[in-house]
């Protein structure tokens, strides 16, 4: 039965891990707008001329958080 | 290419020159003309764009395009963005970012679909120097990051306008940021509550299993301590807002629905903690944490829906005009934000613009439309040395105004200040759910006391446990969860139909019919001079329109929509106060008053003579149209009543509301409008000042429920004082700020649906209450019998919440405007 002594804290730890990930996602603004990203996902990437992919001008910069 | 074939091509081109592309209006190349097709396109790109625009429901785009004139409009708009480069503008709206970048939030109207999003977010490839553009499709708010050294804001704005989305700077950024922060906090609370309740549930299952099959004492204690820790975290961290709101409502001596909820949470937490320490008795942490989670979730749904409506209204403020043309000492004219104007500035106001300041006219003379300030529907002449008030619309020529008061010091600004005072003094209406709350508190505490008293005699050890079980299971969680969801969803559905309701309490205030007070100009009527009626030959209207187009006169505007481009008049002559004359297609046309026609010896047939006095009696201006010395038609120019107004007023009456008209316009005109709509003369009040409107509404509000519907600055204070203030389509900024509801669609039909929604929404809240009372009666009886245990509670409480949530989601209080 002592396996519970390991599994239980592990379960709680796992929950805390997910909680931390979610809180980070919320704080970075990922949940501020739930409509536009859905539309963004179905758009094609702009057709690029020859060149490295790193030159993409449009990149998602998360809103700066001062808090 | 040979000369011959070139000629052939040219011939074909001219032959099809009249075939214009349905998207861009340029001629369609001969080879691409599809005979018999519904729409013609000059290229595949236009065909695609046409398809996209139509499938987005944006076909109005083409109508607008036709009325504005494509390229000319783009150029004019591009020139109008000069104020974006003014230093005062940057100070007000632009936020500096690290790396010498800057960010601005702009509002664009008419974003509807993924194509708009795609187009606007391609801004960096359209304007060099723009680094990113992120659009929130629901609100039309676009955040543009740019390099001020590489581009100017006016170029960004002009590029957006060229794409078809003229931008406006978004006001009140700090308020929006604050709200976004609150939303994030709320989500985080839900996450914490979810993590806690999930784990408590896991432990509870183990304990329930142990309850039936036996459990090792060490695990029993450990599981209970762990669930107590998680439960207490959940109740007092994510659940803190409920305690906060309950404490505030008790301080205000009007207990709300959070008070009984908090009693349950607190009783459960304390009893659970005590039982954990004593290592005996029941724990309720699984039910309580689930309750906190569901409550938070219900509030989030309700709040989100309401937020969309409020945000939409606030972003609409941003679209109101905000720039002014300031004339510098050297005579040059510069565009600056209206917020940066100062007393003593000389400001140019062009035709069709609204005056940004109170001041005296120093150059030019014109006619001003004061309807938004005073409700007066007829334009007022204003000349040199006369006063111009902020908010008045210049209908005539360009004038220059020397500012005597700006911003809050203007008459419009002072009326805005009254809005705040009127809102603060608004007669309170106790919210239905809150009035239930105090009953709940009494019943719950009485029942708990009864249980305790009953069990002290039978089994003193079980008395406390049973009393606490009673406190917990009879908690009105269903109302706390389902009522905000039901009301929130109703608000969300209404917002999708263009009726923006600012708060759930608005629906509750609409529950019982009372008096509905309507403004006239712009609400019941269109607010613009139009040809309301014609007696005689309608074919004469384009002739009159041609003559009127040549003169600058407010009445001439009414004829504009009847203009025929084939008819033109080059020798139009205006006789002030009487009429206009000129020759069209070789025939002499006169348009004017009866006296004007008589002066020109026009024969007036008896059949038309009576029309003049009939129109005058209706409060309209008759304009006789004579061709070659014969009167052929009489047009009534007036502020036409909205088409759906008679039906809407009938519907309002049928649902038990008494209808009044309250207007700043001339009492005779108000009475005529009332007569047309079947409103008794005693209920039509004209010539009322904004202060008078406020007093009238306050007097009515002390007697019963009052809904005020208006659109102007003159209505704003009255809107705030009424139980429910409704601002209608095309209203002034002030009325938007003051109103509880904004109807973003023209016409009065949405108002009828709004008024019908209130009782329906309240009915669904009552259904929710009934369902939850049934559950509480069953649970309460079980408690009294002492047969309740945490397992039964754990089953009953979520079932209760789920069934009322189903009722809430399925209730259709808002049924849509089109269904009538």
List the helices and strands and how they pair.
The complex is a heterodimer of chains A (67) and B (820).
Chain A (H helix, E strand, L loop, with lengths): L2 H25 L8 H6 L26
Chain B lengths: L2 H13 L28 H12 L4 H9 L1 H10 L7 H7 L1 E3 L3 E8 L5 H8 L1 H4 L3 E7 L4 E6 L6 H10 L4 E3 L3 H41 L3 H20 L3 H12 L6 H21 L6 H34 L4 E5 L5 E5 L8 E4 L8 E6 L2 E4 L1 H4 L5 E3 L4 E2 L4 E2 L4 E7 L5 H14 L7 H27 L1 H14 L3 H20 L2 E3 L2 H6 L5 E4 L1 H5 E12 L4 H9 L4 H6 L13 E3 L3 E6 L2 E6 L1 H6 L6 H12 L3 E7 L2 E12 L3 H10 L3 E5 L4 H10 L7 E2 L4 H12 L4 E5 L2 H9 L2 E4 L5 H6 L2 E3 L5 H37 L4 H21 L10
Parallel strand pairs in B: 16-23, 16-25, 23-24, 25-26, 26-27
Antiparallel strand pairs in B: 1-2, 2-4, 2-5, 3-4, 6-7, 6-8, 8-14, 9-12, 9-14, 10-11, 10-13, 15-27, 17-22, 18-19, 19-20, 20-21, 21-22
Key terms for this structure?
heterodimer, A: 67 residues, mainly alpha, B: alpha+beta, seven-stranded mixed β-sheet
Give structural notes:
The complex is a heterodimer of chains A (67) and B (820). Chain A is mainly alpha-helical and 67 residues long. In chain A, 46% of the residues lie in helices and 0% in strands. Chain A has 2 helices and no strands. Chain A is elongated and about 55 Å long. Chain B is an alpha+beta fold. Chain B is built from 31 helices and 27 strands. In chain B, a hairpin with a 5-residue loop joins β6 and β7 (333-337). In chain B, α15 packs parallel to α28, α17 packs antiparallel against α30 and α27 (690-701) packs parallel to α28 (713-721). The A-B interface holds A 1, 4, 8, 11-12, 15-16, 18-19, 22-23, 26-27, 29, 31-33, 35-36, 39-40, 42-43, 46, 57-61, 63-64, 67 and B 97, 113-114, 117-118, 121-122, 124-125, 131-132, 134-138, 143, 145, 180-181, 183-184, 187-188, 191-192, 195, 198-199, 202, 216, 219, 222, 226.
């Amino acid at each position: 039965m002592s396996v519970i002594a390991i599994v239980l804290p592990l379960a709680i730890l796992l929950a805390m891990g997910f909680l931390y990930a979610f809180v980070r996602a919320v704080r970075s603004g990922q949940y501020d707008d739930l409509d536009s990203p859905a539309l963004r996902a179905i758009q094609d990437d702009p057709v690029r001329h020859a060149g490295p992919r790193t030159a993409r001008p449009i990149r998602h910069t998360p809103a700066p958080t001062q808090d | 290419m040979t000369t011959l074939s070139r000629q052939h091509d040219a011939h074909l081109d001219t032959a099809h020159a009249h075939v214009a592309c349905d998207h861009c209006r340029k001629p369609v190349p001969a080879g691409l003309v599809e005979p018999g097709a519904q729409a013609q396109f000059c290229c595949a790109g236009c065909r695609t764009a046409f398809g996209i625009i139509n499938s987005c429901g944006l076909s109005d785009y083409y109508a607008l395009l036709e009325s504005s004139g494509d390229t000319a409009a783009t150029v004019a708009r591009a020139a109008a963005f000069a104020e974006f480069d003014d230093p005062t503008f940057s100070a007000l709206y632009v936020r500096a970012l690290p790396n010498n970048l800057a960010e601005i939030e702009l509002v664009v109207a008419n974003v509807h679909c993924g194509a708009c999003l795609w187009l606007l977010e391609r801004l960096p490839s359209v304007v060099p120097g723009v680094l990113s553009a992120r659009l929130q499709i629901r609100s039309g708010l676009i955040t543009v990051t740019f390099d001020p050294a590489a581009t100017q804001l006016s170029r960004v704005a002009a590029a957006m306008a060229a794409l078809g989305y003229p931008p406006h700077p978004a006001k009140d950024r700090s308020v929006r940021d604050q709200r976004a922060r609150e939303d994030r906090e709320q989500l985080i609370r839900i996450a914490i509550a979810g993590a806690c309740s999930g784990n408590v549930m896991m432990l509870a299952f183990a304990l329930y299993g142990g309850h039936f099959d036996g459990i090792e004492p060490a695990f029993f204690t450990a599981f209970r301590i762990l669930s107590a820790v998680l439960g207490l975290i959940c109740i007092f961290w994510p659940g803190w807002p409920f305690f906060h709101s309950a404490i505030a409502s008790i301080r205000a001596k009007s207990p709300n629905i959070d008070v009984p909820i908090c009693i349950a949470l607190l009783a459960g937490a304390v009893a659970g903690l005590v039982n954990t320490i004593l290592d005996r008795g029941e724990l309720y942490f699984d039910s309580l944490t689930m309750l906190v989670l569901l409550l938070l979730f219900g509030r989030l749904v309700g709040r989100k829906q309401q937020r969309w409506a409020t945000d939409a209204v606030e972003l609409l403020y941003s679209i109101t005009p905000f720039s002014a043309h300031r004339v510098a000492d050297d005579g040059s004219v510069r565009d600056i934000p209206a917020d940066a104007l100062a007393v003593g500035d000389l400001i140019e106001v062009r035709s069709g613009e609204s005056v940004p300041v109170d001041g005296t006219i120093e150059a030019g003379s014109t006619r001003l439309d004061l309807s938004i300030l005073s409700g007066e529907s007829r334009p007022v002449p204003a000349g040199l040395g006369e006063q111009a008030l902020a908010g008045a619309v210049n209908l005539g020529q360009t004038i220059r105004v020397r500012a005597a008061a700006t911003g809050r010091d203007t008459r419009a600004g002072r009326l805005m200040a009254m809005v705040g005072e009127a809102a603060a003094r608004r007669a309170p209406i106790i919210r239905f759910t809150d009035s239930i709350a105090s009953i709940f508190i009494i019943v719950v505490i009485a029942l708990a006391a009864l249980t305790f008293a009953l069990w002290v005699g039978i089994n003193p050890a079980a008395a406390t446990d049973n009393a606490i079980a009673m406190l917990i299971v009879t908690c009105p969680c269903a109302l706390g969860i389902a009522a905000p969801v039901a009301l929130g969803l109703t608000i969300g559905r209404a917002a999708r139909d263009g009726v923006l309701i600012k708060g759930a309490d608005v629906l509750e205030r609409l529950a019982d019919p009372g008096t509905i007070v309507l403004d006239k100009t712009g609400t019941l009527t269109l607010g613009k001079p139009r040809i309301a009626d014609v007696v005689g030959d309608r074919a004469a209207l384009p002739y009159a329109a041609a003559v009127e187009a040549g003169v600058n006169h407010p009445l001439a505007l009414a004829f504009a929509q009847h203009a025929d481009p084939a008819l033109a008049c080059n020798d139009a002559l205006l006789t002030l106060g009487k009429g206009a004359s000129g020759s069209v297609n070789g025939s002499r046309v006169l348009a004017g008053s009866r006296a004007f026609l008589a002066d020109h010896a026009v024969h007036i047939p008896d059949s038309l003579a009576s029309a003049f006095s009939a129109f005058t009696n209706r409060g309209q201006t008759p304009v006789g149209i004579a061709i070659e010395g014969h009167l052929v038609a009489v047009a009534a120019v007036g502020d036409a009543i909205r088409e759906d107004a008679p039906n809407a007023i009938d519907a309002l009456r049928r649902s038990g509301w008494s209808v009044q008209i309250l207007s700043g316009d001339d009492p005779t005109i108000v009475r005529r409008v009332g007569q047309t709509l079947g409103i008794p003369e005693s209920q039509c009040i004209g010539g009322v000042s904004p202060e008078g409107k406020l007093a009238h509404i306050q007097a009515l509000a002390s007697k019963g429920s009052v809904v005020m519907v208006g659109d102007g600055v003159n209505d704003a204070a009255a809107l705030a004082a009424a139980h429910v203030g409704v601002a209608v389509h095309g209203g002034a900024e002030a009325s938007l700020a003051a109103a509880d509801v904004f109807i973003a669609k023209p016409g009065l039909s949405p108002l009828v649906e709004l008024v019908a929604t209130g009782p329906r929404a309240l009915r669904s809240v009552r259904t929710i209450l009934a369902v939850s009372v049934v559950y509480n009666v069953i649970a309460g009886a079980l408690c009294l019998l002492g047969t309740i245990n945490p397992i039964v509670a754990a089953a009953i409480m979520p079932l209760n919440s789920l069934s009322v949530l189903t009722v809430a989601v399925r209730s259709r209080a808002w049924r849509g405007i089109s269904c009538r």
